[in-house]
Design brief:
This protein is α/β, with parallel strands linked by helices. The chain folds into three domains: about 1-80 and about 120-195 and about 310-395, FAD/NAD(P)-binding domain; about 85-115 and about 195-305, D-Amino Acid Oxidase, Chain A, domain 2; about 395-580, no CATH class. It has 18 helices and 23 strands. Strands 1, 2, 3, 8, 9, 10, 11, 19 and 20 form a nine-stranded mixed β-sheet that branches. Strands 17-13-16-15-14-5-6-22 form an eight-stranded mixed β-sheet, covered by helices on one side. Strands 4-7 form a two-stranded antiparallel ribbon. α1 (about 20-35) links the parallel β2 (about 5-20) and β3 (about 40-45). α1 (about 20-35) packs parallel to α4 (about 120-135), α11 (about 395-410) packs parallel to α14 and α11 packs antiparallel against α15 (about 485-515). The chain is globular, with a radius of gyration of 25 Å. Mean pLDDT is about 90; it is low at about 1-5 and about 575-585.
Length: about 575
């Protein structure tokens, strides 16, 4: 250790991680699990242990991040013992000012086969800190990174940091991972950041104690309470939705409840709820039932974020640097995807570092594909989700959009983690062409929903949809949300996934056509096999787009239509739901 011009130079490490939050702590653990003898320095801005009231957003996990935490990071027993098992995602649409039990609801009636979790972030990060110390990670808390000097290939990078008002220390490493959160140290330094197309903002806080959605419903409404028994709704990530916004309710293992308002700024300006006082007034106007039940709860904290989404032109480099977590990209939180990005990014970094330090593999040829996947997935999710805020209040459209989104995510995003696709070049190559065809379909569906929202009269609604009780959706879940590492098995599943999604798109088209153009009853009854990549409600474009000239083998969507049809009824028909939509069965 030497001193030069008042700067202290420490040892050279294999990896320096700039940051001490969830992305940093999980990356350090993954590196040490894969390479126990690797030298890792973590420079954390915060001190440890985090206080009980250090509130960090990002509590809700889904299947990908739960698999990463439980299986890849070997924390399954820890999660079961220290955090809530999540009761799925739950959505309330419709009349935002009426009784909660009268609003159309999407959610589960029993726990999903594969556990996900509601994470209390301060508890998890404190525990990861202790685990990492025990595994040999060197952690410098209460430190501020001042500069990151990226040097020429083959030369170690230099990171200068300062602890409090103390002396500046410079450390060297072969690899540098920026996990600095929204400070985006490398991204800003290298001019890589890109803003999202839409402006969306959020504010969130915690209240002391259990705020239970069931208590907001009429106690006499036995149908509402019995369809989700044993008070299980509380353990869901609950979304209360209206035009241009959603409000989350998330239970925490600390016994407190997280609440957040998320909006499209074009409909609900950030300035209308960016203080605690304004946020409570905003709830009184838009979600008065929740507002009424908040009376008497102690507010523990309040945070806010304007225009939260962004991307980057690059997150990984063959010059041995990487940006992970919020230091790289940040999509929309609607489907709780933040920890999914951490899972993919950290796994990619670990694989590159392992190949670089432990093998003679030419890992640099992977960098472009890794960048393309992270940046492309962020772009797709951000645009798809944020364009849908304008139809959050449209019952049937939103329900079908959700069904499409979860089917697509389970089919083509989940297997990349459960099948360790990015750890195996053969596996990745075998699935690439099918995945590209899926993404082309996904963008078509996104455009279709945004076309439909302008044409619908919102005449159809529903009472309750248990999405894992829809047989074709449950089949997609069972096929994909499980560990698979045989390339042929993964490829066969991908082929079937695309076929199933193509059939789902066909069904969505016919349901939308009945909603917008009910006069085309003869065509709807015939239901010819169409080109799912060409769907539109504009009849003038059907020929030019080749809607009725599919290049795939015709199939029979009768079964899927029979499963979707009974879910919906006309709002003016309160008799038998199964008579609501007549598709000629």
């Amino acid at each position: 250790m030497s001193t030069d011009n008042g700067k202290k130079t420490s040892r050279t490490y294999d990896v320096i991680i700039c940051g001490g939050g969830l992305a940093a702590q999980t990356l350090a653990r993954q590196l040490k699990l894969n390479m126990p003898d690797i030298s890792v320095l973590m420079i954390a801005k915060n001190g440890f242990p985090l206080a009980w009231n250090d509130f960090k957003v990002g509590e809700s996990t889904v299947e990908i991040s739960s698999f990463y935490l439980g299986e890849v990071l070997q924390l399954q027993t820890y999660l079961n013992n220290n955090h809530f098992i999540k009761f799925g995602l739950r959505y309330f649409i419709g009349d935002t000012k009426g009784c909660i039990s009268r609003r159309p609801e999407i959610g589960l009636t029993r726990y999903a086969p594969y556990n996900s979790f509601q994470i209390d972030r301060s508890i998890l990060e404190n525990d990861l800190y202790r685990m990492n110390l025990q595994s040999g990670v060197e952690i410098v808390p209460n430190a501020t990174v001042q500069t990151i000097s990226i040097n020429e290939p083959g030369e170690p990078h230099l990171v200068s940091y300062q602890c409090g008002a103390g002396q500046t220390t410079t450390a060297a490493a072969k690899w540098v991972a920026d996990a600095s959160g929204r400070r985006c140290l490398l991204q800003r330094q290298l001019g890589l950041q890109q803003r999202a197309s839409y402006s969306h903002s959020a504010a969130w806080w915690r209240v002391k104690g259990r705020l239970d959605i069931d208590n907001m419903a009429d106690a006499k409404d036995s149908g509402f309470h019995l369809r989700v028994p044993y008070g299980s709704r509380y353990f869901s990530t609950t979304h209360l939705m209206g035009e241009g916004y959603w409000v989350w309710l998330i239970p925490l293992a600390s016994g407190n409840t997280s609440i957040g308002i998320v909006t499209a700024d074009s409909i609900h300006p950030f300035e209308s709820y960016n203080t605690m006082e304004k946020a409570l007034a905003w709830l009184q106007e838009h979600e008065p039932v929740l507002s009424g039940h908040l009376q008497g709860y102690e507010v523990l904290d309040f945070l806010k974020m304007k225009n939260y989404s962004y991307s980057s032109t690059q997150v990984f480099s063959s010059n041995r640097w990487a940006c992970v977590g919020d230091a790289g990209v940040f999509t929309d939180p609607f489907y709780s995807p933040g920890s999914n990005f951490i899972a993919f990014e950290n796994s990619m970094v670990t694989e590159m570092v392992r190949a670089d330090l432990r093998t003679s593999t030419n890992w640099t040829e992977w960098v472009d594909e890794y960048n393309s996947f992270i940046i492309g997935m962020n772009k797709w999710l951000t645009e798809s989700i944020q364009s849908s805020y304008t139809y959050f209040h449209l019952d049937m459209l939103m329900a079908l959009s959700y069904i499409w989104d979860v089917a697509a995510g389970w089919s083509f995003i989940g297997p990349k983690m459960f099948g360790a696709v990015f750890h195996n070049r053969e596996r990745h190559a075998a699935l690439k062409e099918i995945s590209l065809r899926f993404f082309a379909l996904a963008y078509t569906v996104e455009r279709f929903f945004n076309e439909w929202k302008h044409l619908t009269g919102n005449a159809y609604t529903f009472d309750f949809i248990d999405y894992l009780s829809i047989p074709f959706l449950k089949n997609i879940y069972d096929r994909n949300i499980r560990k698979k590492e045989i390339t042929d098995e993964l490829k066969a599943a991908h082929v079937q996934n695309l076929r199933d999604l193509e059939a789902l798109v066909q069904a969505i088209f016919w349901l939308a056509l009945e909603d917008v153009h009910p006069g085309k009853k003869t065509l709807i009854e015939k239901r010819p096999w169409i080109n799912a990549w060409a769907i539109t409600l504009d009849e003038a474009q059907w020929h030019s787009k080749g809607l009725f000239s599919p290049d795939t083998t015709p199939g029979d969507i009768t079964t899927i239509m029979e499963q979707l049809k009974p879910l919906f009824r006309r709002k003016d028909d309160h008799s038998k739901k199964e008579d609501a939509l007549d598709f000629g069965f």
